[in-house]
Every structure is written in structure tokens, then in C-alpha cells.
């Protein structure tokens, strides 16, 4: 059974091998090798191969005889074909020999008849061709003479009249073919002239623009001269009719009222005096080229080419140099080229019929305006020199006025100048910041000595100062302020002049100019000058004398602010009481600086006091106090006396505040010195010495180092210390504990925490002393009683503190 199944399986595998693609035979063979009957399968495979070989051999034997018969027939056909080829070749050779003579005779006859016909035709047609040849010869002469317009007319006559009558001949065809080439040549030559013209105006744009801007400048100067004469002639009438002054100025004497007439009017009136664009550039090539292209019917092509090339030139002209911002000449060259470009276009617009139109010129101007403004914004932002910005502004105004004279709108340029005004203001602020810093750094912060009336008058011209009391003092004398006051005031006026220079020729009203100057001056006062004053006040190593002088200086500068208001009103002709007029913030600026200096004085005084207190060297365990104040405190009092003597020129309130602040800080610092944690013990002797020092402080306060205090007001700074020391030196604890919390308490300013802390230090000192003298304890009954009293008071103070906290 197993052998039958194996045989059947082998048969199936063989059929699969016979019917399957050899690429997929792998799995089939693997199944054979995986089985156990590999040898049996190989025998069966050999038998199958032998069967197939026998079938192949049988089939070959069956078809071999037919193949041999076919080869035999092919050999017979080849011989017959060779015979047929030889016969055809022989027949052809005979035919060629027989027809050669006939062909020669026929060719001779055809050639003779052709010559006869050609001669007759030539004789007949020459009479019709001579006019064409003569006209063409005339055309060649005109072309050689570069008379292109007559040549175009000759071409037109030749093409429309002569050539159609002559007929279709080769030379006529050649002429007809040459006519478009001749027209193209004429067009190309005229185009070459146009290119030369375009190159010429490109080279001369700078010169044309320079001439036009000079022309505009002359016209503006003349307008201003006429306006000045009108103003001087009508000055009295204007003063009599002040209510109509603004209308007269606006309608009759505005220096810009006649600028809109433009440079073209000047050219029309005075073209013999001032050269125009036509005097610098020969425009005949463009006129000639336009005429030729019109005759050729290609006017539109010419117009498109001209406009396209001029647009390209416009883009080149409008592209500024990368270093244009470095010098004014770079800007001038840039503006000259733009003005020259549009002067040429304006001339072409008015001297040709339709080569350029108003819409095209306006489109170019819009492009130029946007690119010019963008370039100016970019390059002017690199500028840090206010003089260069001012010169650039004047150049832009001249540029705008020149083009406005040709009818181009320039409002955007003036708007951009108003934007540049802010940049100009920032550059001025930076420059004046350096000036103010230099003035403050170089000042000696000492009153100005004046030896003669001439010196006094010189300073009075720089700074508006009036002091009747000082005028009564004979020379030499000293002004209360230092050098930086007249210098700062002069710099403020210079800044105002610089702002005024920029606002000129911007077509602004007096009110707008006044408002611009006031806003810029406010920025200078509130930002630049204020920062410089703060810098001078806060810098290191500034002394009290310098701070005092700064307060005096800022006081005088504050008083001069209304003079600045009048100065601005005078140069702008705008009354200071005008509605909506911007007010100067100088008063608040100088007040802030003065307050900062005052605070710095208070801080410096406190720091000096702290430095003296660091020299304090109390013996907190001393058995007996001294009769004189400590050395450090004597030095401190001497320092304060000399310092407050300098405050005589300060406002009374400032000096009083500084004195009170110093005394309060001294009192607080002495109390902290007494209560600091490092001091564990305080003897009654040390407390007596401390009391002597406090009395010295009170003596200083009572002496009135600064005038203006009422009664013993200054002594109140030491009231806390005084009540605390009286409580301990008088040992009046019963009164303190009994009256605590009452408004009429004798020791109202003594805090129980402070009293407890100091009492504990005294207690520790007494205990330590008792331990050292323990052998004499039987003789120290009074000290033991006092110690018990101290312990009792300590308990009562703690109970008092706990009660208050609850």
C-alpha cells in the first residue's frame, strides 16, 4: 500500500515538473529531498527522460525527408535566375547605345528655342525695367547720404508704383526683398540715434538736475526778496491792524505763495538768462526717430521702447549708492539725477505729441517718490551728525520745490521731512547730552567770582540774572551760582536755534513751529538735562558742597524758565498765552533735580554720621563715666557745625530738613549702638559716659546750627534717648510703671522692649561684678538689694509687654 502511494506521489511530482515554470520548481524538488524515497524517485525520473528522448527522435525521423526535398528545389531555381539576369543586362545595354544620338539632337533643339525666347522677352521687358533701376539707384544715393526720410518716400514710390509695373523679375524680387531690409536698416539707424540720445540724457541727467535746482534756488531767493520788501513796506500797516496780521501774512507775504508757479514759468520769462534742458541735450534724434517710426507705421513700438528704456533708466537713477549717507555730495548727486530725469520727461511731454503722456509721467513719479522716500529713510537713519541732517533737509526742500515747479506733487516729501524731524531731534538730544555731561564734569561747583562790571555784564548776557541786593555790593563780588548755570542756559538757547533751523522752509505755520520747538525743548529738559543732572548728583565722590551748589544752580535755572518761554515766543512770533500752546517743563525738571540733590545731601550726611559712629569705642564695663564727651562725638559735632555753615545759601526749609534728618539719624544710630546684640553688658559708668555724649548732642541741637527752628524743635530728635537715659540715671521705675500708657506720662517715648533690653544688659553687668567680688559679699547688701529690684522691674516690664501684646 505504501509503495503504491509513493509511486503515485512520484508521478504527480513528475507531471508538476513537466508542466511548471522552472523558476517555481524549487518547492517541488524540496518535497522530493524531504521524503525518504529519493533513490526511487531518481530512477523514475531517468525512465521518464528516456521516454521523452525516444519521442523526440521519432519526430525528427518523420520530417527529415521533406526538408531534403525543399533544399533540392531551391538549388534549381538559383540557376534559372542567374540566366534571366544576364539577358536583362544585355538588352539594356543595346537600348542605351541606340538612344544616345537622339537625346543629343533633342537637347540642342531645346537650347536653341530657349535662347530665342529669352532674347525676345528681354528686349520686350527692358523698356519697362529701366524706371525701376533708376528709382532704385536714387534710393541707394539717398541711403548713402543718410537722408532717411526722403529714402522712405522713394521706397514707398518704388514699392507702390514702379515694381508692380515692371513685373515679376528676379531683380524686382530682390528689390522687393530688400525693401523691408532697407526699412529695417533705416529703423535700426534711427533706433541707434535714439539709443545715443538715451545715453546722452543719462550722462547729462546730473548736470540737467543741477541746473534745474540752481534755477529753482534763484527763483526762491527772488521770491523771498520780494516778500521781504512787501513785509517791510507793509510793516506799519500790519502793526496797526494786528487783528488782521495773520491774514496779511498768509495771503500777502508768505514766501512760499508763488512757488507753485514753478521753474517752467521762469524758463518762459527768462530763457535767455537761465539754460534749460534743451540747452544741455540735443533732442533732435528723438524727434527724428519718432517721425521715422510714424512713417513706418511703428509708432506704438517706438513709444513702448522709449518708455521701457526710460523706466529702466529711472530704476537705475533711483538706486542710491551704498555710501550715499556718508556725505552731502552723495545725496546731492542722487537728487540731481532724479531731477534731471524728470526735467527731460517733462520736456518730452510738452514737445512731442503722445510720445509720453501725463499718466505715464505720473506713474514714473509715483515710483520715484516711493523709492526716493524709502532710500532717504534708510540712509538718513545711519546719520549721526545733526549738521548733515540739517543740510540734507535743506537739500530735500530744494529738491521738492524744484519738482513742484514742474507740476509734480511733493507732499509726501514734506511729510517725510516731518518724520525726519524726530530723528533730528534724537540726534540733537544725544549731542546735547554730551555737551551737558562735559559742562557738569568740568564745573568747579563754586560761586562765580566777578571782578569788574564788564565780567558781570558778560555773564548777564549769557544768563538772565537779577539780584538788586547783589548789585549794591561793590566789585569784586561773587555770583551765587557756578559756571554751569550760564553754560547750560546758553546750550538750551542753542538747542532751540537748532530746532528752529530745521523747521524753516517746511511750509509750517508759526504755531506749528512753536509747538515743535517747545516739544523738543521739553524732551531736552525732561530727559536729557534731567538725566545729566541725576548723573552729576549720583556720581561717586560728590561732596556736600557740590550738592549744595547744585541745589543753588537748579534754583536759578528754574527761575529762568519763563525767560526761555519768552525767547521761544520771540523767535516764533507766537504769544506765550496762545490757546493750546505747549508749556515748558523746565520748572518740574529742575525741581526734581533739586529734590534729588536734597535727598543725596540727607543720605551723605547720614553716611558721614555712620562713619563717625564706627569710630565709637565705648567701654561698656567701665565703673565710672568721664566728664567730657567722647572724641568721636566731638569730631562729629564739629563736622556737622562746619557742614551746616555751608548751607547758608540753601533755601531755609532744605537746610532745616537736612539738620533735622541728621539729628534723627544720629539719635537712632546712638540708640542702636546702645542696644546692639554684641553689647551683652552695660555698666552704669558706661551709661553715664553715654549720657554725657547725648548731652553734647543736645547742646549742639540747642545751639541752633541752622536758623529757622522754633524753640527746642531740634531737641525733639533726641527725646527718645533723653527719656530713656533719664529713666535709668534717675532710676525712676515706679513712675514709669505707674504712668505707662497715659498721655501725661513723663517717659512717654520709652518703649518697654527697649527699657527691658537695656535693663537686662545692666543686670548682667551687675551680676558679673558681684561674682568677681564674691569674697566681700557680706559688705554688698545694697548691691544685692538693687539686683533684687532690677529682677522685680524686669518681671514687671515683661508682664507689661505681655499685657500690651494680648
From TrEMBL:
Domain Exocyst complex subunit EXOC6/Sec15 C-terminal: 412-761
Membrane spanning residue stretches: none
Domain Exocyst complex component EXOC6/Sec15 N-terminal: 44-213
Biological process terms in GO annotation: Golgi to plasma membrane transport; intracellular protein transport; vesicle tethering involved in exocytosis
Keywords in alphabetical order: Exocytosis, Transport
Pfam families noted in UniProt: EXOC6_Sec15_N, Sec15_C
One GO location term (cellular component): plasma membrane
Family from the record: Belongs to the SEC15 family.
Function, in words: Component of the exocyst complex involved in the docking of exocytic vesicles with fusion sites on the plasma membrane.
Protein name, UniProt field: Exocyst complex component
Lineage per the UniProt record: Eukaryota, Metazoa, Chordata, Craniata, Vertebrata
Amino acid at each position: 500500500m505504501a509503495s503504491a502511494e509513493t509511486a503515485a506521489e512520484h508521478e504527480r511530482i513528475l507531471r508538476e515538473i513537466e508542466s511548471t515554470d522552472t523558476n517555481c520548481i524549487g518547492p517541488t524538488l524540496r518535497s522530493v529531498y524531504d521524503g525518504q524515497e529519493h533513490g526511487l524517485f531518481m530512477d523514475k525520473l531517468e525512465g521518464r527522460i528516456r521516454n521523452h528522448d525516444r519521442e523526440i527522435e521519432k519526430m525528427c525521423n518523420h520530417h527529415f525527408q521533406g526538408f531534403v526535398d525543399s533544399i533540392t528545389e531551391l538549388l534549381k531555381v538559383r540557376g534559372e535566375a542567374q540566366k534571366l539576369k544576364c539577358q536583362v543586362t544585355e538588352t539594356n545595354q543595346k537600348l542605351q547605345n541606340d538612344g544616345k544620338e537622339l537625346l543629343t539632337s533633342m537637347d540642342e533643339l531645346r537650347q536653341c528655342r530657349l535662347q530665342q525666347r529669352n532674347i525676345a522677352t528681354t528686349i520686350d521687358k527692358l523698356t519697362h525695367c529701366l524706371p525701376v533701376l533708376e528709382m532704385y539707384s536714387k534710393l541707394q544715393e539717398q541711403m548713402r547720404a543718410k537722408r532717411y526720410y526722403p529714402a522712405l518716400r522713394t521706397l514707398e514710390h518704388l514699392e507702390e508704383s514702379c515694381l508692380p509695373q515692371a513685373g515679376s523679375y528676379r531683380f524686382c524680387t530682390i528689390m522687393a526683398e530688400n525693401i523691408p531690409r532697407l526699412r529695417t536698416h533705416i529703423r535700426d539707424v534711427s533706433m541707434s540715434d535714439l539709443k545715443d540720445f538715451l545715453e546722452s540724457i543719462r550722462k547729462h541727467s546730473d548736470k540737467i538736475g543741477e541746473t534745474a535746482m540752481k534755477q529753482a534756488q534763484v527763483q526762491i531767493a527772488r521770491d523771498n526778496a520780494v516778500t521781504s520788501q512787501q513785509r517791510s513796506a507793509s510793516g506799519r500797516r500790519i502793526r496797526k491792524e494786528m487783528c488782521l496780521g495773520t491774514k496779511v501774512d498768509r495771503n500777502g507775504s508768505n514766501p512760499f505763495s508763488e512757488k507753485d508757479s514753478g521753474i517752467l514759468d521762469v524758463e518762459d520769462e527768462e530763457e535767455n538768462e537761465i539754460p534749460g534742458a534743451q540747452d544741455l541735450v540735443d533732442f533732435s534724434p528723438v524727434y527724428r526717430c519718432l517721425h521715422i517710426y510714424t512713417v513706418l507705421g511703428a509708432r506704438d513700438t517706438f513709444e513702448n521702447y522709449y518708455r521701457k528704456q526710460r523706466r529702466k533708466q529711472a530704476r537705475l537713477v533711483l538706486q542710491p549708492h551704498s555710501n550715499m549717507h556718508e556725505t552731502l555730495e552723495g545725496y546731492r548727486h542722487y537728487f540731481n539725477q532724479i531731477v534731471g530725469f524728470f526735467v527731460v520727461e517733462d520736456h518730452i511731454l510738452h514737445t512731442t505729441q503722445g510720445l509720453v503722456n501725463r499718466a505715464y509721467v505720473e506713474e514714473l513719479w509715483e515710483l520715484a517718490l516711493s523709492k526716493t522716500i524709502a532710500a532717504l529713510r534708510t540712509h538718513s537713519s545711519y546719520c549721526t551728525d545733526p549738521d548733515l541732517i540739517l543740510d540734507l533737509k535743506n537739500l530735500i526742500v530744494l529738491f521738492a520745490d524744484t519738482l513742484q515747479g514742474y507740476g509734480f506733487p511733493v507732499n509726501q516729501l514734506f511729510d517725510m521731512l516731518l518724520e525726519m524731524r524726530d530723528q533730528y531731534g534724537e540726534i540733537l538730544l544725544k549731542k546735547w547730552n554730551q555737551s551737558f555731561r562735559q559742562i557738569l564734569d568740568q564745573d568747579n561747583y563754586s560761586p562765580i567770582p566777578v571782578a569788574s562790571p564788564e565780567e558781570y555784564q558778560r555773564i548777564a548776557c549769557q544768563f538772565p540774572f537779577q539780584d538788586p541786593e547783589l548789585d549794591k555790593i561793590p566789585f569784586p563780588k561773587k555770583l551765587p551760582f557756578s559756571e554751569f548755570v550760564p553754560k547750560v542756559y546758553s546750550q538750551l538757547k542753542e538747542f532751540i536755534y537748532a530746532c528752529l533751523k530745521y523747521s524753516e522752509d517746511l511750509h509750517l505755520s508759526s504755531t506749528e513751529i512753536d509747538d515743535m520747538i517747545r516739544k523738543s525743548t521739553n524732551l531736552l529738559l525732561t530727559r536729557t538735562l534731567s538725566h545729566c543732572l541725576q548723573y552729576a548728583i549720583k556720581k561717586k565722590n560728590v561732596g556736600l558742597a557740590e550738592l549744595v551748589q547744585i541745589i543753588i544752580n537748579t534754583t536759578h535755572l528754574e527761575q529762568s524758565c519763563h525767560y526761555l518761554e519768552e525767547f521761544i515766543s520771540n523767535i516764533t512770533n507766537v504769544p506765550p498765552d496762545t490757546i493750546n500752546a505747549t508749556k515748558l517743563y523746565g520748572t518740574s525738571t529742575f525741581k526734581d533735580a533739586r529734590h534729588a540733590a536734597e535727598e543725596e545731601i540727607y543720605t551723605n550726611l547720614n553716611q558721614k554720621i555712620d562713619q563717625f559712629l564706627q569710630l565709637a569705642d565705648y567701654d561698656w564695663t567701665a565703673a565710672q563715666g568721664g566728664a567730657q564727651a567722647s572724641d568721636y562725638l566731638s569730631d562729629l559735632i564739629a563736622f556737622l557745625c562746619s557742614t551746616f555753615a555751608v548751607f547758608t545759601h540753601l533755601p531755609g526749609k532744605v537746610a532745616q530738613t537736612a539738620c533735622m534728618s541728621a539729628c534723627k539719624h544720629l539719635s537712632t544710630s546712638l540708640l542702636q549702638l546702645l542696644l546692639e546684640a554684641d553689647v551683652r553688658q552695660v555698666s552704669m559708668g558706661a551709661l553715664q559716659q553715654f549720657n554725657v555724649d547725648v548731652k553734647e548732642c543736645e547742646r549742639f541741637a540747642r545751639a541752633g546750627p541752622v536758623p529757622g527752628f522754633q524753640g527746642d524743635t531740634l531737641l525733639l530728635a533726641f527725646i527718645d534717648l533723653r527719656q530713656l537715659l533719664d529713666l535709668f540715671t534717675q532710676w525712676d521705675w515706679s513712675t514709669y510703671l505707674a504712668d505707662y500708657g497715659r498721655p501725661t506720662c513723663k517717659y512717654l517715648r520709652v518703649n518697654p522692649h527697649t527699657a527691658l533690653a537695656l535693663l537686662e544688659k545692666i543686670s548682667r553687668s551687675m551680676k558679673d561684678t558681684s561674682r568677681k567680688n564674691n569674697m566681700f559679699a557680706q559688705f554688698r547688701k545694697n548691691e544685692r538689694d538693687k539686683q533684687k529690684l532690677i529682677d522685680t522691674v524686669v518681671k514687671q516690664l515683661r508682664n507689661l509687654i505681655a499685657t500690651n501684646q494680648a
